[in-house]
Amino acid sequence: MDSRTLLLKTALNLFAQRGYDSVGVQEIVATAELTKPSLYHHFGSKHGLLDALLTEGSAPLNEALRTASAYDGNLDVALERVLDAYLCFAENAPDFYRFWLSLLFCPPGHEAYRLAVSLFTAQSALLERMFQSAAQDHGNMKGRHVRYAYVFISVINSVVAANTGGEIRIEADQRREILHQFSHGIYS
After folding, report:
1. pLDDT, tens only, 125-142
2. In whole angstroms, what is the distance from residue 11 CA to residue 134 CA?
3. By 3-state DSSP, what share of the chain in percent is helix, strand and coil, each rounded to 5?
4. What's the whole-model pTM score?
């Protein structure tokens, strides 16, 4: 494994266990058995490391969401695809997902919060477009696309947090129930 990849994996492991602020550059490089100049060469700083970690770590989810959120005339199917994209990603990258969610609870001025929110905002924009397109077929949804995107992602993040934490296991019937409960609110 190259040193850049090793630093990203090591940082994610440490950040996921103890949080971004609790882990220093020295601990990251010592755990990876590398030196600080190696980290600075690849990332410039701890903030640069976090930026790369979040950007690269979220890329598979963002790509899956671009496809999943494409509205094709059936909002129920699109919602199911979006939920599946999040759940599949979280199943494959649970440490990343939990870590990313934890950053959304940092103080708003915190550097980690700003990076985490930028990911949330990009994902939200994809879902906003999906809901905006669906509103053409469902007149009662007009003008609510921002709220629907925010609420749907919030519901998904709650479900993912419980699922990756082991509190619940989301099976096919639970997925349908989640989608039914959410859809009931947007169609009424």
Report:
1. 999 999 999 999 988 889
2. 40
3. 80, 0, 20
4. 0.91
